[in-house]
Design brief:
The complex is a heterodimer of chains A (112) and B (385). With 112 residues, chain A is α+β, with helices and mostly antiparallel strands. With 385 residues, chain B is mainly α. In chain B, 71% of the residues lie in helices and 2% in strands. In chain B, helix 1 runs antiparallel to helix 2 and helix 8 crosses helix 9. The longest helix of chain B is centred in the first third of the chain and has 22 residues. The relative contact order of chain B is 0.06. The chains are: A alpha+beta (112), B mainly alpha (385). Chains A and B meet through helix 2 of A and loops of B.
């Protein structure tokens, strides 16, 4: 079963970390990406680069910024193939940001 | 009579069907169908020797029939974890008990807590949705939605129907115990004695996991508390442990609870539930060993870091005969919004002969009291200072 892991964190949370720890976290994250359960994964540019689009009365409207203005922002995502929710939670819990005040939202994927 | 058998067998039958069909709703439909057939046949023909086995077999056969009728069996067969041949020569004696899998699924922490509680009572306890609703003071519609939502999440997110492996077990067992204790603490409302229900579920858990001391600790705790329930109120008034009429205690149940506690300790139990059960057991002795109660509260406080436990530790110290030390401990706690903090403080100040301060503390407690019995109790105390 496929799950999307949406990775939420405070922007640039890593900047507060000492260099050595930051390096470790980065290595950890990259090692995680090579887990065979990971189908695809990506990091997103900061929320300041976000553009939200709506179509109102046939008009395409753009606003600067993310859809929801919150302290934690969507910073990346992964799609994984996991046996069940416990398996997905296990992988999600190893994403470093989860222990630095961030959160990983897990949702089953519906393939179109 | 038949209703008792049904309640007894429901959890086991449903667990087996969820394991077989991989779907809560289908399992519930099939189980209900089998129970309806039993209700029709058993009164005249007599119950079979193995009612659980009969119910599971009948329910499975009905579920398979339904698949066949829907005649997309060829497509659906891959959803079934067993091959057709094994369905046909199905052997009643081979039905394995899958209630443990069911417990861990119902109490999965990815579900909302109110959903975990409702589903545990419905699926394992076999309580009717209407009765669960009444017990939790919500409408039947609300309770139905709660159950539907939990079941839908289990299905959509593939919450496993399995006993968690070693790595996850401790945390997940904590979640199960928390659900049972929460059910226990709802007490008696409507037609259902949730205290007794929690004890029943606790017994099932302990039978299925005989090597988990905390499960036994919780069961012992609930049994010993439950044994005192008739003494806890006089009319509408709350009666403190030390003032309770002991002839109203169910001494057999206390004894049974103690024996569960002894087992828990024998297999190395020293967790929070075991310690609470030990305290409950000590407090029901004819002569309460207060130094030991205080010491057990101290261990519990170290383990949990809970200020409420510290408060109880202080109250026990006062019983040992050291109200000064007790008051010292209490004054260090930050529990200003907690009724029992103020009432305990009031009691200690009263014993130390500091009347005006004691009255102020009781008045503060009174302002935090939400139930009528609590208010009456505190008013009486206030008059006695």
């Amino acid at each position: 079963m496929q799950y999307a892991l949406m990775i939420y964190a405070e922007p640039a949370y890593g900047d507060a970390l000492p260099e050595a720890e930051r390096e470790k976290v980065r290595a950890e994250f990259h090692a995680l990406l090579s887990d065979e359960r990971v189908v695809e994964a990506a990091r997103l540019q900061p929320a300041e680069t976000a553009t939200s689009v709506r179509v109102v009365g046939g008009q395409t409207l753009m606003t600067d910024g993310p859809f929801a203005d919150t302290k934690e922002v969507l910073g990346g995502f992964a799609v994984i193939e996991a046996a069940n929710l416990d398996d997905a939670v296990e992988l999600a819990s190893r994403i470093p940001v989860a222990r630095y005040g961030g959160a990983i939202e897990i949702r089953p994927v519906v393939r179109l | 009579m038949l209703e008792d058998v049904f309640r007894e067998e429901w959890g086991r039958v449903l667990a087996s069907l969820v394991g077989f069909l991989g779907d809560f709703d289908k399992a519930e439909d099939a189980a209900q169908e089998a129970f309806a057939i039993a209700a029709e046949r058993w009164p005249a023909a007599g119950a079979p020797d193995n009612p659980g086995g009969w119910l599971v077999t009948t329910a499975r056969n009905r579920a398979i029939d339904r698949f066949r009728r829907e005649r997309t069996l060829a497509d659906k067969l891959h959803l079934l974890p067993v091959r057709e041949a094994t369905m046909d020569d199905f052997d009643e004696t081979s039905i394995k008990d899958e209630r443990l899998e069911l417990i861990f699924t119902c109490c999965h922490p990815a579900l909302r807590l109110d959903g975990q509680v409702a589903l545990t009572l419905r699926a394992l306890g076999g309580l009717e949705t209407a009765d669960i609703a009444r017990a939790f003071l919500v409408s039947e519609e609300t309770m139905k939605r709660r159950l539907t939502r939990a079941k839908a999440k289990i299905k959509a997110t593939a919450i496993p129907f399995a006993v968690p492996d070693e790595r996850l077990l401790a945390g997940r067992l904590d979640a199960v115990l928390a659900v049972l204790y929460l059910i226990y603490n709802e007490g008696y409302r409507g037609r259902v004695d949730l205290g007794a229900e929690a004890i029943r579920l606790g017994r099932v858990l302990v039978t299925l996991m005989p090597n988990q001391p905390e499960a036994q600790g919780l069961l012992a705790l609930m049994m010993i508390h439950h044994a005192r329930r008739r003494a806890r109120f006089a009319g509408d008034d709350l009666v403190l442990l030390e003032d309770q009429d002991r002839s109203l205690w169910d001494t057999e149940a206390i004894k049974a609870g103690r024996s569960v506690l002894e087992n828990a300790v024998a297999i190395g139990g020293a967790g929070a539930y075991v310690l609470q059960a030990a305290i409950a057991s000590l407090q029901t002795r004819e002569h309460v060993d207060w130094p030991q109660v205080a010491d057990t509260y101290r261990r519990l406080a170290e383990l949990t870091g809970s200020p409420v436990v510290e408060l109880n530790h202080a109250a026990a110290l006062a019983q040992v005969g050291d109200p000064d030390a007790a008051l010292d401990t209490v004054e260090r706690l930050e529990l200003d919004g907690y009724l029992y903090y103020h009432s305990t403080r009031g009691e200690l100040l009263r014993r130390l002969g500091r009347g005006p301060e004691a009255r102020a503390a009781y008045r503060r407690a009174l302002r935090l009291a939400t139930s009528t019995p609590e208010r009456r109790f505190l008013t009486r105390r206030l008059e006695q200072v």
